[in-house]
Amino acid sequence: MLESNTERRDVRAKVLSIVTRVRALLEQSKGVVPGEAELEISHHYGIDKFDQFGITMVTVVNRDYCKKLIVVLPGQTHPEQFHNRKEETFHVLHGELNLRLDGEEQLCGPGDVVTITPGTRHAFDSPNGAVFEEISSTHFVDDSHYTDPAIASNSERKTFLSHWIS
After folding, report:
1. Distances (CA, A) of 33 to 21, 30, 45, 153
2. How confident is the model at residue 166, as a pLDDT?
3. Adjacent-strand bridge partners of 72
4. Which of 3, 133, 148, 162 is the Cys-Cys partner for 91 at CB 3.0 to 4.6 Å?
C-alpha cells in the first residue's frame, strides 16, 4: 500500500469528547453502568457527523436476551432501521425521546415502555438528550437494516471501547 493512497486521522479528541458527554448524561440520569460494559459509538454517516446522526450504546448483556443502555445526546437522530429477527422493548429512563414506528411518531418520557416487533421500521431523536434501556432478544451483528443504503456502505460507522467507565 502506498502512503499516497492512505489517510490517517487522529480522532482521539473526538472520541474523548463523546465519552465525556455520555458519562455526564448517564450521571444526570442516575444510571448505573457495570464497569466491564462495552461502549459502542455509532456514527452512521462518519464520526464528524456524530453530533447530528448517532447514538451510544452500552451493552450490559447479550445472550439469549440482550440489555443495552442507549444514550442519545442532545440533538442526535438515530436513522431509520428495522430488524428481521430481533424484538426490542424500549424503557425510557431519562429525558424525552421522539420515536417513529413505521412513520408514526410518538413522544416518550421517563417510565414509558414501547415494544418494537421484527420488521417494524424505527427511528428516534432527542432534542435535549435521553437515556433508555433496550431489552431484546439476542442482538445479531447482521440484523440491523437501515433504510438509507449510505449507512450500510459505511464500513467504519462504529467505534468500540472497553474500560471507558473508570
Report:
1. 15, 10, 27, 32
2. 62
3. 130
4. 133
Number of Cβ atoms within 10 Å of the Cβ of 34: 12
pLDDT surpassing 60 at residue 1 = no
Q: Please give the pLDDT value at position 151.
A: 94
Instruction: Note the residue count of the chain.
Output: 166
Inform me whether the pLDDT recorded for 119 exceeds 60.
Answer: yes
Nearest to 72 by CA among 106, 48, 97: 97
**Residue 142 three-state SS:** helix
Cell numbers describing residue 63: 445472550
- Identify the CA nearest to 88 among candidates 121, 139, 120, 135: 135
Q: Which three cell numbers stand for residue 66?
A: 440482550
Could you tell me the pTM of the whole model?
0.91
- Which alpha helices (H) appear in 3-154, and where do they start and end? 12-29, 149-152
Q: If you average pLDDT over residues 24-53, what whole number do you get?
A: 92
Q: Across-strand partners of 57?
A: 40, 70
Whether pLDDT at 150 is above 70: yes
For residue 124, list its beta bridge partners. Answer: 78, 99
